[in-house]
Amino acid sequence: MNHVVRSRRVVTPEGVRPAAIHIADGTIARVADWDDCGYDFTDYGDLAVLPGIVDTHVHLNEPGRTEWEGFATATYAAAIGGVTTLVDMPLNSIPPTTTREGFAAKRQAAQGQCAVDVGFWGGVVPGNQRELAGLVADGVRGFKCFLVDSGVAEFGWVGESELAPAMQILAGLGAPLLVHAEVAGPIDAVAAELATADPHRYATYLASRPPAAEEQAIQLVTRLCRATRARTHIVHHSAASALPLLRDARAEGLPLTAETCPHYLHFTAEAIPDGATPFKCAPPIREAANREALWDALAEGVLELVASDHSPCSPSLKAMEVGDFVSAWGGVSGLQLAPSVVWTEASRRGHSLVDLVRWMCAGPARLAGLAARKGAIAPGLDADLVVFADDERFEVTTTAIQHRHKVTPYVGETLRGAVHATYLRGQLIAERGKLLVTEQGELL
Ligand SMILES: [Zn+2]
Question: What pLDDT, on a 0 to 100 scale, did the predictor assign at position 191?
C-alpha cells in the first residue's frame, strides 16, 4: 500500500515546509520535496499536515463501566478528532489495570474494537508491588497512582510509605510513574468550613481543592524522585503556584515532567456558571491568571505536553438537573476536541503549529515510550497524519460529538482548527467528522 500525501505546509521536526510524504507499508518511507510526488498522490493544497495526535491520558472505562465510555466510541471520537494514538488510564474500568489478570481482561475487551492505536498504563495501588514487573513484561507503558481518593473504590491511593518502594521498583524497571498530584491534607483542612457553603456554586468547588494540595503533592513526589531517580510525570497539572516547584526540579536535572490539559488552557473559573457540573474535574479549572501562567509554563517547557484527561461518565452521574458540584462525578469529556481547543488558545497567543506538535504529538509519544513509532513526520515512523485546517472556525454542537455521551463543557464554544482527514499507518480512516474504517487500531 504505497501512497504519497503532499501539502504546502507539512509540519516536520525541522519546521513547516512544502513536502511530499511517501508512505510504504504503513510507515513514512521518506519526506521528499513537494514536487517529488510520483503519480499516485493526494494533494491537500495549503492545509496543514501534522503527525497524528498522541493522547496519553484517556479513561476508556471498559470493561466494567462501558456505560461511561468504551473502546469503540472513544476511538471513533479520537479518529475524527485527529487523535491516532491513545493511552488508556488504569482506573474506572473494572477490573482496574493493577494486576496481570486485570490487564489481560482489558486487552481482551479492547481487541477488535479500536479505530486508532491504543496503549495502556498500569496502576500502582496499595499492595500490588509484586504485580509491577509482570505488568511491564505484559506490555504496560508505565504506571499511574493517586495520592488522594481516586473517586472509585477499587483503585486506592498510596502514601509515602507505599510510594517510595514502588518508585524504587519502577526505577529498576525503567517504567515511568504518572502521579495525580493532590494530597488530602489541604483538601481536608477546608472541608469543615465549606460544609455549609452552597454546593451549586462553582466557587465552592474551586475552594474545596486548594492549590496547596498540588504544591504539597509535588513536594513529596520531587523528594521521592530525587531519592529513587524513577522517571516521574505529573498528570493534569493545574495550580500556577506549584509551577516554581516543577521549574526547580527541572533545573536540578531530576527526571520529572508534567502535563496540563485543554480545559485548564481554555476555560476560566470566573466564567463557569454555577450549577455547570460538566466543568467539574480534579484538580479544578482555576482563574484566568492561573490559565496564563500555564501557557507561560508550556512556552518555557516547564510543562512538557498536553493530554486530554478525557474522563466521562453516565450523564446521570453529572447531577446536572440539580447542578450539585459536590455530588457530581469529576471528569471533563473532551477527547475529540483536544487539538482544536489547544490550537484555538495557542494561536491566540502567537504559538505555532510546531509548538502544537511538540505538546500534543512528540511530547506524549516520548512519555509513553513510543517516540520510535509515533509523534513526528519523519522517515521510519508510522504514517499517522492529520490534515488540519488551522484557520477554520467551527461551533461545537452536540450532534458532532461522538463520545459515548454528548455531555461536554465545550458545547457552544467556537473553536479554531478543524480536522479534515486522519490517516492511521497510511490508511485514510476518517474524513470531515466521518469514520471510514473501524477496527484498524492496534494494541500497542
Ligand atoms: Zn485522569
Answer: 94
- Pairing state between β 256-260 and 143-146: unpaired
Distance CA 412, CA 432 (A): 19
Q: Is the pTM of this model over 0.90?
A: yes
- CA–CA distance, 10 with 372 (Å, rounded to integer): 19
pLDDT of residue 12: 96
Pairwise CA distance, residues 5 & 25, whole Å: 14
Looking at residue 1, what is its pLDDT? 59
Q: Ligand 1 centroid to 72 CA: how many Å? A: 19
Query: From the CA of 235, how far away is ligand 1's center (Å)?
Result: 8
Integer Cα distance of 41 and 22 in angstroms: 9
Inter-residue contact 37 to 8 (CB < 8 Å): no
Residue with grid cell 505529573, as numbered in its chain = 234
Backbone torsion region of residue 441, taken as left when φ is above 0, otherwise alpha when ψ lies between -120 and 50, otherwise beta:
beta
Letter string b/e over residues 307-333, b meaning 16 or more CB atoms within 10 A of that residue's CB: bbbbbbbebebbbeeebbbbebbbbbb
The residue among 363 and 40 whose pLDDT is bigger is: 363
Helices (H), 267-337: 288-300
Ligand 1 ion: nearby residues, β-carbon < 5 Å:
309, 311
Q: What mean pLDDT do residues 212-232 have?
A: 98
pLDDT band (50, 70, 90) for residue 357: very high
Percentage of the chain lying above the pLDDT 90 cut: 95
Ligand 1 center–CA 205 separation, angstroms: 18
Half-sphere exposure (CA, 13 Å, Cβ side) for 11? 26
What ranges make up the beta strands (E) of 150-285? 177-180, 232-235, 256-260
Distance CA 290, CA 241 (A): 8
Helices and strands in the chain: count of H runs, count of E runs: 13, 18
Average pLDDT score, the chain: 96
Contact 377, 12 (CB under 8 A): yes
**Contact at 8 Å (CB) between 29 and 23?**
yes
DSSP sequence for 355-410:
HHHIIIIIHHHHHTT-TTTSSS--TTSB--EEEEEEEEEEE--GGG--SSS---TT
| Residue 8 CA, ligand 1 centroid: distance in Å | 37
